[in-house]
Design a protein that fits this description.
The chain is an all-alpha fold and 74 residues long. Helices cover 22% and strands 0% of the residues. The chain has 2 domains: 1-30; 37-74, no CATH class.
């Protein structure tokens, strides 16, 4: 793929988003929760403060509320 082909793809995606459309597999910024990709879902995990302050992923350290334990790591 050349730089010009890549630029054309990016321009096309940006134009569709600006017009309110979506590209294949792309969710609009203000998409309803049902249309958001499943990898962005959050699990219901108790916060570190609710479990004694320890991190759920790394119990040797205190919870910093990074949210990693509530996601697929994204």
């Amino acid at each position: 793929m050349t730089d010009e082909e890549l630029r054309a793809i990016v321009r096309d995606v940006l134009a569709r988003r600006a017009a309110g459309g979506e590209g294949p597999g792309l969710a609009a910024t203000a998409a309803p929760a049902a249309r958001v990709h499943p990898s962005h879902a959050l699990f219901t995990v108790p916060a570190g403060a609710d479990t004694g302050g320890q991190c759920v992923i790394e119990p040797a350290v205190l919870c910093t509320h990074c949210g990693y334990c509530k996601s697929y790591g994204h």
